[in-house]
Amino acid sequence: MTIRLYIWVRLASVLLLLSGCAHRYFPGPYVDRPDLAAQYADRLQHLYPRRFQMTQRIILHAGRKDFDFSAALSVDRECGFRAVALGELGVKFLDLVGANRDFEIVKRPERLPPKPILMGVMPDIQHLYMMNRFDHDGLIVRKEEGRTGLVFPAGDGTFDEYVFSDSNGALLTSHRVREDRVVSEIEYGASRRFAKWSAAVPAVIIVRNKRWKYTMEIRLIDISPKASGKESRNSPKR
Is 157 inside a domain boundary? Predict the structure, then answer.
């Protein structure tokens, strides 16, 4: 953590408190603990393999409609991700490719608008599985008793926050915040181990996207590390 970054965040915290805007999200008072920040950042980095594949069951609540489908997710945390949604009989109806902030919809139903996908679903996937994109260890935030927050600020009231249990280090909740407002809040269920990956990972994740007004329940079916190849297929087409 650089001194300039820490001073900027402290100043932003004070100004936000003085503003008294209840609708803005304030993660909590910052604590100068770079050692603890490095510890939790390392925990995030090693929650998932560097390259992996997942099979998932997705239950999506949007408005008055519910959608239940299977998904396959492939992640190379140095390059990007690819998410494919499968309908009945395994027919692919959604194909998404992301790398850093460059998102591409390869396939989608015509009735499905692109903005909630490009500005909602894909940044949410990035927040969940590509924590290595941050260029520093983050800042520690004092939360309520028994919890510690790790915040990665990007300026202009934009940051990602991950909240851990002090007792066992489990990831409990996280937030995507843009312009001091929560875009997405995420709840992580109990963790479990899978046959091909020794670390315990959240078996259920619930994403509540406030901007696009959907709730996505992600149930992990399986996860397996993936060998690196000479050329990644995750990168968006140019």
Answer: yes
